[in-house]
Design goal:
7-stranded mixed sheet; 16 helices; binds 4'-deoxy-4'-aminopyridoxal-5'-phosphate; 442 residues
């Protein structure tokens, strides 16, 4: 079992006071806090071992290279990859997904081909493929989202067909928390021979991941969402595909040899890790992965289910239909993400007011604008019947507040959150008059 009180001792930032109140950090879907073990590992690297990797015979460079290579091994173990060289270190999920879109898409997609995405996609999964589709004159198709926050699987047969070259989707939604049925999507994609690209940004940090079972071709995730440093991320790919794939970014560290008219690339992962990599980020991420493996990813998942169950129960009991909640109600179908609106109180105002109580949440459209428009996710009640043509109008009227949990969160924090939100709702009429300062949609 996961003991959150013990875990909390490893996170020094949890001692921070925010507006003279103890920090309650519910913004984990954006980025998690860092345990002292990760902070110390980065410090140790800088203090004792720092040098560039793969460039020198001197001791420090050898040590740094060894630590960097070992980090690939650790991440391979974390997601049960067959081998360390299936792990490509990237800056974040966004870079990993762009890598696949450019490296694979530019060479394998042709005019008239179809790319299947979902309305639930984070922009980082959706936009690289839309970009490639534009360049290659391919067609984009979407799997829709039902009102209760699931992908519409009834559409699979109609949307995925012989013309489909790629199916890209999130394993878990960053807004609704929905855990998608990977098996169903992979099965259909395989029938037509399409490439399957999974966005694991919101799944890998929160549940066990076994790439041998997932059955996808590529999986990208971010280190900063799983206790690791900013600037750390992973693209996992099937070994044969990584071997075939042309590099996306090219330059130093990617080549075996260069002549004036020829290049021989190194084997994966090196041919994809161009230039001096983010060495300390990879080393820190490996320590984060070790930390999570020690806790056990099943325990992480169980802890989050407990928290999200409690949160939804408390929200319903306390606020009834004053709150609009988005996403599946079955907590076994979702991660620890709770998106909601207080009826007729702007989501940015709610987030700012929660900050006054020391509670960190995110508000806006969470880099999933099409999803907010499709489900009419707005603080307005009744919700807008249509999506306005004017951009600023859309940005102002659509959005949600998102609370998201991780291993150090507790039911006591949820009680405090519910109490704080009760006060905010009591003050709704006064708060309504407050101008919404920044329309930060992110
Ligand atoms: N996909 C999903 C589902 C996400 O939640 C995020 C982060 N919000 C990303 C992709 C992008 O992650 P990053 O900003 O680390 O590239």
């Amino acid at each position: 079992m996961l003991n959150a009180d013990e875990v909390r001792k490893d996170f020094p930032i949890l001692n921070r006071m925010i507006h003279e109140r103890k920090l309650v950090y519910f913004d984990n879907a954006a980025s998690t806090l860092k345990p002292i073990q990760v902070i110390e590992a980065i410090k140790n690297f800088y203090v004792n071992h720092y040098a560039n990797v793969h460039r020198g015979f001197h001791t420090l460079s050898q040590e740094a290279s060894q630590m960097y290579e070992q980090a690939h091994e650790t991440l391979a173990k974390f997601i049960n990859a067959y081998s360390w060289d299936e792990i490509v270190f990237v800056n974040n999920t966004t870079e990993g997904l762009n890598l696949v879109a450019y490296s694979w898409g530019l060479h394998n997609i042709n005019e008239g081909d179809e790319i299947v995405l979902t309305v639930m996609d984070h922009h980082s999964s959706m936009l690289p493929w839309r970009h490639i589709a534009k360049i290659k004159k391919a067609r984009i198709k979407y799997i829709n989202v039902t009102n209760d926050g699931y992908l519409n699987y009834d559409q699979l047969d109609e949307v995925i067909n012989e013309k489909t070259k790629v199916v890209a989707f999130p394993i878990a939604s960053n807004v609704l928390g929905t855990i998608n049925d990977v098996r169903k999507i992979v099965k259909k994609a395989r029938e037509v021979g399409a490439l399957v690209v999974a966005d694991g940004a919101q799944s890998v940090p929160h549940m066990p991941t076994d790439v041998r079972e997932l059955g996808v071709d590529f999986l990208a995730f971010s280190g900063h969402k799983m206790l690791g440093p900013t600037g750390s991320g992973v693209l996992w790919g099937r070994r044969d595909l990584l071997q075939e794939l042309k590099p996306f970014k090219v330059g130093g560290d990617t080549i075996k040899d260069v002549t004036l008219d020829d290049v021989i690339w190194l084997n994966p992962p090196w041919k994809f890790e161009a230039g001096t990599p983010n060495i300390e980020a990879a080393i820190g991420l490996a320590v984060a992965a070790e930390y999570l493996m020690k806790i056990g990813m099943e325990n992480v998942r169980r802890h989050e289910i407990e928290l999200v169950e409690y949160m939804l129960k408390m929200m319903l009991e306390t606020f009834g239909d004053e709150i609009i909640y988005y996403g599946p109600k079955n907590t076994h179908h979702k991660t620890g993400v709770v998106a909601f609106n207080v009826k007729n109180l702007h989501f940015h105002i709610v987030a700012q007011a929660l900050d006054y109580f020391g509670i960190a949440v995110r508000s806006g459209m969470h880099c999933a604008h099409p999803l907010h428009y499709a489900l009419r996710i707005s603080h307005e009640y009744p919700p807008p019947q249509s999506v306005p043509d004017e951009v600023d109008e859309r940005l102002k009227r659509f959005g949600s507040v998102r609370a998201s949990f991780y291993i150090y969160n507790t039911k006591e924090e949820i009680d405090y959150f519910i109490g704080s939100l009760s006060m905010i709702i009591l003050l709704r009429e006064q708060l309504k008059t407050k101008p919404v300062e920044a329309v930060c949609t992110g």
